Amino acid sequence: MIRAPLSITSVLDESADVVAVAAPWTAVLVLTSLPYRLAQILFVDRIFEAGSEAMRYGNVLGRTANLVTAAFIFSLFGRAVFARACRLATQRGRTPGRETWRVPPAALATYLVTASTSLLLWFLALPTVIGVLAAVLFSGLAIGTMELNDRVGVRAPFLLIGRYAKRIAIPVALTLVFLVAFLLALLNVTVAFQTGVWLASAVGGFDAPHWNVLFGVQNRRFVLLMIAGAVIAIEPFWIAAQVMFVRKAGAEESGEDLRTWLDELREAS
Q: How many domains does the chain have?
């Protein structure tokens, strides 16, 4: 499914096709991401609720943090499976089967290391916009290069990420594009939910006087839920774009893109 030279437009176009081909495996990604996103909402909400008294609720917050950690590890498996489905779809041009579940243990172990590092960087950079974008960029390269790790190690996966980060323009462009996509998804998810609430409230005899309070921007939990929904909506395309970028960049280095182009010319003739 590599049809054009490496560029931001070719990566986005072909990643959309990959998501369509690997669509059945999107359910795995969503189902494994939901517990993590809901646990995040719970943890953030409790932090805000405790406020300056958070130190007094160490046990509750600690248990919630453990729940978030367990859900995070579970979500990584779902991301790894979907990334593998995207790679197999690019190679075969059809929906992959049961072999998608067979994520190499070495790749999964190294992804746990790199994904945990990206999450740590995200928290450390939270006060800065540039730092957060850099952490997101690193996270994308981590999932894109996951299956290229054939041995368990700490240093090797970071060197691999650094190798593909040399073409920094495209990863940066992808990060900015998906930042805009996240904002649009957030708007669409919120409008869709509000429309559903409005339609439900219009049902005869159905009284919902407090819905504007529960499902409005003044409700912190509702806002967090909409943010989680937007992230889940764009995540399949984000992962597919990262896998496609790494595959296309690797194809250029190895000459595979030229061989693919020649094969297509032979088929056309």
A: 1
